């Protein structure tokens, strides 16, 4: 990181700071680089999760099941969503799991 990169003040507990310092030493990074690396990784992982599970949204489930609303139909309930999602997770797990593993491997190769 260059000296002209934006700076951010951050308050941490002493315990968390110590963990970050230890991790930075173990990974051969500066404390700043360790914090930036971990933030980037957590945001990327969150992005990957959202992409992987986007097909399990209510709209997707309704489309996949050819669900057509009828006058008076109520929105899908949370328990119905969870039941349908469970079935769909089984169907999509291998595909998305493999894609996530591939992405993680690519990330690790970059480091």
TrEMBL record:
Q: Name one GO molecular function term.
A: DNA binding
Q: Name one GO biological process term.
A: regulation of DNA-templated transcription
The Arc-like DNA binding domain is annotated at 2-45
Matching entries from Gene3D superfamilies are given as: Met repressor-like
A UniProt-annotated Pfam family: Arc
Highest taxon of the lineage: Bacteria
Q: What is this protein called?
A: Mnt
């Amino acid at each position: 990181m260059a000296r002209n990169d934006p700076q951010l003040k951050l308050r941490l507990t002493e315990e968390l700071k110590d963990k970050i310092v230890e991790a930075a030493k173990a990974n051969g990074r500066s404390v700043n680089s360790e914090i930036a690396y971990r933030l980037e990784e957590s945001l990327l992982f969150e992005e990957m999760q959202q992409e992987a599970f986007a097909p399990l949204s209510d709209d997707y489930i309704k489309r996949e099941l050819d669900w057509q609303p009828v006058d008076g139909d109520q929105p899908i309930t949370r328990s119905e969503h969870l039941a349908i999602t469970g079935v769909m997770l089984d169907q999509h797990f291998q595909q998305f799991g493999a894609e996530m593993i591939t992405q993680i491997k690519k990330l690790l190769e970059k480091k």
